[in-house]
Amino acid sequence: SLKMASDSPESLMTLCTDYCLRNLEGTLCYLLDNETLRLHPDIFLPSEICDKLVNEYVELVKTDSIFEPHESFFTLFSDPRSTRLARIHLREQIVQDQDLEAIRKQDLVELYLTNCEKLTAKSLQTLVSFSHTLISLSLFGCCNIFYEEENPGGCEDDCLVNPTRQVLVKDFTFEGFRRLRFLNLGRLIEGVNVETLLRPLASLAALDLSGIQLNDVGFLTQWKDTLVSLVLYNMDLSEEHIQVIAQLRKLRHLDISRDHLSSYYKFKLTRRVLNLFVEHLVNLTSLDISGHTMLENCTIPNMEEKMGQTSIEPAKSSIAPFRGLKRPLQFLGLFETSLCRLTHIPAYKVSGDKNEEQVLNAIEAYTEHRPEITSRAINLLFDIARIERCSQLLRALQLVITALKCHKDDKNIQVTGSAALFYLTNSEYRMEQSVKLRRQVIQVVLNGMESYQEVTVQRNCCLTLCNFSIPEELEFQYRRVNELLLNILNQSRQDESIQRIAVHLCNALVCQVDNDHKEAVGKMGFVMTMLKLIQKKLADKTCDQVMEFSWSALWNITDETPDNCEMFLNYSGMKLFLECLKEFPEKQELHRNMLGLLGNVAEVKELRPQLMTSQFISVFSNLLESKADGIEVSYNACGVLSHIMFDGPEAWGICEPHREEVVKRMWAAIQSWDINSRRNINYRSFEPILRLLPQGISPVSQHWATWALYNLVSVYPDKYCPLLIKEGGIPLLKDVIKMGSARQETKEMAR
């Protein structure tokens, strides 16, 4: 079902929401005074649609670099008569005090504010306006929401000397929040009195106090008849805490896990504590004790067990205290504890580090609020993907994508996540992945490249892109990928390996794509960037892959694209060509790439006069005798000269070498080639070759063109016969046979 789920198209609702958010002005809104968004007066939207608009908006701002946030977005939802909100999830820097203020008339039922560090005590006052309807509230990581700005002295002049100080608000409580059942105060700022804050709440069902240090939690017993979920992640526990927890008889979910790297904990788990939980908390279905050190051995040796058969029956549990459970737990968190490696664990889902299933459960459980744990779990997944084979590939990919999206600015997650993606997208897993999923991977990889100039992330992202079919799979983000790669290549200090991968990707991206793509990339500075790389390599006197790929990329991007050919000439490309030829006389691959590119330049009539100098013509003539890369260098040199000859004797504006002498050398070269040569070249169109057939001004150019066609259609008939027919080559060849000026051997070949 996961396979099918990942392959189905987006729902119409999702597509419409996305379209409207990207085109607010053209759909739901108009611009007032050219700056403020206003809702069209005849629009009325129910909460099902408004919630989705707000939540998707937050997601887009967070994960799509091209999406522009709107200052006045939240004001669209200020009037409940036209737009209704009920359940919204806001995150990070996207939301500010005035945004919540804008929607204060809404009857919100659920409000999640996660890591909204820009919210101050002004927003606490706004919360009061939702107090009569709010059932679920999360203030997780909103570290400034209990601070207000105080103006010392209140005097205007004095303020310049003393900027505003932040003062903790002491008098706010949840008085009047009569319906509030679910509350997350994770990572609440120190100094707020939690007990006073919560006392007015009559019947709490779920409470999260992650990362808060409380010596006395006795006040929790006031909800012993209603509390079903309690999270005390990273709270330093003591015997008193345990006694209080044991009284909360209705608990179904208890999380006392901790990050074992974060700080020193005096508390150690014992057999007695676990026995106490099993005995008193009879409704427990989920327990998390990840990161804890066991003070004593709780395990039951199972020598008599047959290897490989595992059981989740409590009676067979390898963890002694859990033999007292009435039924297996739905979830048991054992990440970074020794217990997760035991054979019989009485739970349907276990988070741990023993195998792929446990590791994926950990990533799933901890991604949203515990990036510090998640990055270590993804690191374990990375090892599994690298060394073994992932059996739950789609789940693994989706979890890593979610983590990377959720923690765009967390360096550890970006490094481990991008490395895991490389292994999860490689060719052996290819068949199992849908287009939609692979596109999601590309999106998060590009996000990573944008947000992180860090070398490891950049390298991992570039390597991951190499796992895709280029250009096809990257076509939907074509501009963006090219901009990012050029950006990497234009940095002054460069990592060798990244440079090599980035140039390889650039080359692949401009190979076999439409001319408008090539023109667009040319305008981004592609030609200039490649020439700069070549210049650097020349200065170092190195001819490596970067040098060869850069020339290859220029060959590809100038193919039938006159603007890019002109750019090559304007940025002293010919000077670099001559210098490379002189510096690296033995590098065959390099010579082939350079001459292929000059062949493209020579196809442009307006640019040919720039090639008409004694120096260039002599170089091309000498290369006719080159045996580099089979016939390729000689063939390309002859192609360049064929186009120049096609302009006739009057265009030959030089004394040395003589035109006739060059023509003679061209005939000799063509006659020396093996007509059955296999080729290192790829034609998308024969148009530039066919152009040389119907003319009598340069029989040698006509012969070169006929030879080229004959070789390609006889060695690769399946590929090139259809192309020759489609582009109207047959009647042109028939005309050559009848032509008086054509040489006999040309006619033979044409026939």
TrEMBL record:
GO CC annotation: Cul2-RING ubiquitin ligase complex
Cross-referenced InterPro entries: ARM-like (IPR011989), ARM-type_fold (IPR016024), Armadillo (IPR000225), LRR_dom_sf (IPR032675), LRR_Zer-1 (IPR056845), ZER1-like_C (IPR055142), Zyg-11_UBL_adapter (IPR051341)
Coiled coil region boundaries: none
Keyword Hydrolase applies: no
Database matches in Gene3D superfamilies: Leucine-rich Repeat Variant (1.25.10.10), Ribonuclease Inhibitor (3.80.10.10)
Listed Pfam families: LRR_Zer-1 (PF25013), ZER1-like_2nd (PF22964)
Occurrences of domain Zer-1-like leucine-rich repeats region (ranges): 196-337
Keyword terms: Acetylation, Leucine-rich repeat, Repeat, Ubl conjugation pathway
Residue ranges occupied by any Protein zer-1 homolog-like C-terminal domain in the UniProt entry: 404-750
Family statement: Belongs to the zyg-11 family.
Oligomeric and partner information: Interacts with the ELOC-ELOB/Elongin BC complex. Part of an E3 ubiquitin ligase complex including ZER1, CUL2 and Elongin BC.
PANTHER family: PROTEIN ZER-1 HOMOLOG, PTHR12904
Protein name: Protein zer-1 homolog
Organism, scientific name: Centropus unirufus
Gene of this entry: Zer1
